[in-house]
Structures are given as structure tokens and as C-alpha cells.
Automatic annotation (TrEMBL):
All residue ranges annotated as the NADP-dependent oxidoreductase domain in the record: 3-91
Protein name, as recorded: Aldose reductase
A GO term for molecular function: oxidoreductase activity
Highest taxon listed in the record's lineage: Eukaryota
Pfam family, one: Aldo_ket_red
Length: 119
């Protein structure tokens, strides 16, 4: 695995799918309608599961997914995501609560004071 060679490591503790979609070449950031390509969610997850099986990665997880996408992933996953990393703020509080019931661990990022939230 190229990443392991570059880091001069035998394994990674955690490997994440950062975005559950792929941007088309030249897409703006954030992408506009039509600038997102199909993403083989199941195929990518299967390859990540192989990394765990081959002991190249200890845990795998996801970032920036909706509850619907996380539920679909859990339906097909042989190895469940260890981590679901998501943005946290008042307008996403319901999403955070739903994801916390599906995932083993939730990590969050926020531009705001996090202490005002509870699950």
C-alpha cells in the first residue's frame, strides 16, 4: 500500500472515507448541481474491509454521511464502521442522535462551542 510505504508504517490505526461522493473534474467547492459523479460506495467499502482482513488497517470508518447512507452501508457491511465523523451544530442535532444509534463511535467537528450539545 503506497500510503504505508510513504509513512514508513506497517499498518494504519484508522482509515476513513472522507466524502461519500466524487467530484467531477473542474468542480467548484462546494460543488454545484451536476458536479458530483457516481460513487461505488459498496465497492470502496469492500476494498477497505480487505485492508482490515489483511491487517493493513485496524479500523475503518466514514465521514460526512447522512443517516440514510450510513444505514445503507450497515446493510451491506461485513465489518461495521468503527467511526462516523460528522459536523455538529444545532441544525444537525437530529442527524447526530440518529447516527449515534447506528455507529460504534461518533466524532464531531464544529465551528461552534460543542459543550451545548448532548446526545
Amino acid at each position: 500500500m503506497k500510503t504505508l510505504n510513504e509513512l514508513q508504517q506497517d499498518y494504519l490505526d484508522l482509515y476513513l472515507i472522507h466524502w461519500p461522493f466524487r467530484l467531477k473534474d473542474g468542480a467548484s467547492r462546494p460543488p454545484k448541481a451536476g458536479e458530483v459523479s457516481d460513487f461505488d460506495w459498496e465497492g470502496v467499502w469492500r476494498e477497505m474491509e480487505k485492508l482490515v482482513t489483511d491487517k493493513l488497517v485496524r479500523d475503518i470508518g466514514v465521514c460526512n454521511v447522512t443517516v440514510r447512507k450510513l444505514s445503507k452501508l450497515l446493510d451491506i457491511a461485513q465489518i461495521k464502521p468503527s467511526v462516523c465523523q460528522m459536523e455538529m451544530h444545532r441544525t444537525l442535532d437530529g442527524e447526530m442522535k440518529k447516527c449515534s444509534r447506528l455507529a460504534r463511535k461518533i466524532t464531531s467537528t464544529s465551528q461552534y462551542q460543542v459543550s451545548c450539545f448532548s446526545l
